[in-house]
Amino acid sequence: MMGGNYPDRYVIMTIGAIMIAAALAFWQLIGVIILAGTLAVVLLPIHRQFIRVINPAVSSFLIATLVVLVVTSAIGFTISIFYTHADYIESIISTILEWVTALSATGTVSIGQSELNEWIMLQLDGLSVWITSLIYQAPMLLVQIVVFLMALMAFLYKGDEIYTEIVESLPVRLSAGVQEISTTVVGTLYAIYVVHVITAIFTFLLAIPFFYFLGYDYVLFYATISGLFQLVPILGPSLLMIFLVIYSVSIGDLRSAALIAVIGYPIVCAVPDLIFRPLIMGMRAKLNPLLMWIGFFGGLAVMGLIGFILGPLFIALVVSGYVVLIRELKRAKEEECVSSDRMDAV
After folding, report:
1. CA-CA distance, 60 to 51, in Å (whole number)?
2. Closest by alpha carbon to 211, among 260, 246, 160, 170?
3. What is the C-alpha separation between 167 and 179, in angstroms, rounded?
4. So what's the pLDDT on residue 154?
5. Cα(34)–Cα(28) distance, rounded to whole angstroms?
């Protein structure tokens, strides 16, 4: 029978049905809302500091505005970097294409001029299709941005209050488990967002001396591109290194190509990605770095770009949930043994 100390199951079923219906109704926006919630968890410490001197609603609005400014500035800076160096980038691409054409003419490689032109046109067509689809999706993207900002402000404004209400309404043992899981989740989200940016900055700092001693004319440009590419999941600055190796070979600078392959890739790509990031993430998230990478790769493969955030988050939930479950099962077994011993004594 349902005791008086337990919530009515019909109430729980009704509320659960309402939540499921709401999630299905807003399914196209659920990813944006979850993303806003995960970012709010990371930004809540800033919000707690702000509300000491200003109104919580004003604080949530200011933080959301700051997020918009940071993201907009990053995108604008990236575009300006490529735009101001467009002639230099074009000359590099032209040199590589001329080298490939020359190799084709001598029979060194089996790529003809027509095949090369066809490949270039195919890439341009793909870029055109992507830009066109982006234009068609602009209204929906605008809606998603608005919903993201509103959800972010709502989570910042009421996040602590909602969490406290939920935890305090749970039984003591369940409440302790939820708090332990939430601690792991907060650490994981911090590792995903903050450590990701720190790794990009670390990559930028490592790239400066490398490109300087290599003798490149545009040291800050290449270092900036390395840092920006580090923000791109999986590929990172490796894509830049491959491109520079091809360019160095195309101009006959085999020394630079060898230095990039032997020194540049390990320092600029491998150290931040394979050592620095997993180490810092593992320390903050209290998870095995291997599990973090499973979350990254698995999330990207199954959920797309948003999986870069949700993949490790789900791994953290599974691991922390497993730890809590095992502890509760052991405790229940110990209590059962104690109860059995008492029965035998009687």
Report:
1. 9
2. 260
3. 7
4. 92
5. 11
Q: Give the pair of three-digit tokens for residue 334.
A: 């110990």
Q: Provide DSSP, 117-166.
A: HHHHHHHHHHHHHHHHHHHHTHHHHHHHHHHHHHHHHHHHHHHHHHHHHH
pLDDT of residue 257: 86
In whole angstroms, what is the distance from residue 245 CA to residue 225 CA? Answer: 15
DSSP state of 306: G
* Residue 272, C-beta contacts closer than 8 angstroms, at least 6 positions apart: 199, 202, 203, 206, 230, 236
| Single pTM value for the model | 0.75
Instruction: Tokens 């360019």: give the residue.
Output: 247
> Quick one: 95 exposed, middle or buried, by C-beta within 10 A (0-12, 13-18, 19+)?
middle
In total, the chain counts a number of residues equal to 346
Give the tens place of pLDDT for each residue, 140-173. 888 888 888 999 999 999 888 888 888 887 777 7
Positions in the chain short of pLDDT 50: 1-4
